[in-house]
Amino acid sequence: MATDLPVVNLGATTFYDGAKIPGGNGWTSLLYYQNYEANKITDNKGHEIGLPKSKVNVDSVLLQMVYQGEGGPMNTDWGLSATLPFVTKVDIDDGLNNAVLDGKEGVGDLNAGVFLQFKPIMGESGPIFMQRLEAAVIIPVGQYDKHTAVNPGANFWSFNPYWAATFWATPKTTISWRLHYLWNAKNNNPSPEVYGADADSMQAGQAVHLNFNTAYAFTPQFSAGINGYWLNQFTDTQIDGHDAPGRKERVFAIGPGAVYTFSRDNLLFANMYFESDVKNRTEGNRFILRWVHKL
């Protein structure tokens, strides 16, 4: 759970991330289930904030639609992507009858982008390197209440492009990553409880975030390995146009993961993450299931 930053892709995409969408050209649907559970909220030094309780348990479902086209510049194929999240359960307990922490269910912000999938670099035994570039924006269509601590929507636009790549170290061993840059526009209806009763605007700072993993293909259908993510906010959040020091967010997480290929058109990913080195965020565990289905 973030404090100032919007909800972004932390560990939702993992193994073989730089490869072309399974099933080839046309439409593909991706359905995600995510559970995030935390019992700690940290300050700027990574110390736990002193509340009687800091229980946060959030379930969400995300629907993503991807269209893979053909023909693009620089030896690429073009494509489109759109992801809409739904927060289905919010269970929060601060030990103070939720006077400090509370949350709402509902529709989240839409993430939409245009991408270029580069043609693979091939070797004697198969692919060696695949990569993709996407220009994505987060569109503030989600539910937002400035008096609620945990909202499905952020109430501001963001620019969130990424570079995804997969490298085959051996025919069965891969290393993949997805590196994002995050820029945020202003929220002109900020929370008075968080940013002050006189605050007219809040602009979250810029950040980078990275998903990374390595996998080994034990069989043609089953791969497993280690996956993680890292986020670092590198500029200050601004309140009414002035820097607000001490609010930069950071998190690192790592854990096991696996993917099973039922067919060329159906894959199931399962990924678990355990967070550490956290500042100005909740610290907890994240579990994600992702089903990829070629339409």
Q: Would you report the number of β strands?
A: 19
Give the biggest beta sheet. 15 strands, antiparallel
Roughly what fraction of the amino acids lie in strands? over 45%
What is the CA-based Rg, rounded? 19 Å
3D shape: globular
Poorly predicted runs of 5 or more residues: none
The secondary-structure class comes to mainly beta
Number of helices: 1
Q: Classify the helix fraction into a percent range.
A: under 10%
- Between the first and last Cα atoms, what is the distance in angstroms? 33 Å
Mean pLDDT: 95
**SSE string, helix = H, strand = E?**
EEEEEEEEEEEHEEEEEEEE
SSE blueprint and pairings:
Blueprint: E1 26-41, E2 55-68, E3 76-93, E4 106-107, E5 110-118, E6 121-123, E7 126-139, E8 158-159, E9 162-170, E10 173-184, E11 186-187, H1 192-195, E12 202-203, E13 207-217, E14 222-233, E15 238-239, E16 242-243, E17 250-263, E18 266-279, E19 282-294
Antiparallel strand pairs: 1-2, 1-19, 2-3, 3-4, 3-5, 5-7, 6-7, 7-8, 7-9, 8-10, 9-10, 10-13, 11-12, 12-15, 13-14, 14-17, 15-16, 17-18, 18-19
Quickly list its features:
single chain; 295 residues; mainly beta; four-stranded antiparallel sheet; 1 helix
Question: Would you mind describing this structure in some detail?
Answer:
With about 300 residues, the protein is mostly beta strands. It has one helix spanning about 190-195; strands spanning about 25-40, 55-70, 75-95, 105, 110-120, 120-125, 125-140, 160, 160-170, 175-185, 185, 200-205, 205-215, 220-235, 240, 240-245, 250-265, 265-280, 280-295. Helices cover about 0% and strands about 60% of the residues. The chain has a 15-stranded antiparallel sheet that branches. The protein has a four-stranded antiparallel sheet with strand order 11-12-15-16, with no helix packed on it. The radius of gyration is 19 Å and the shape is globular.
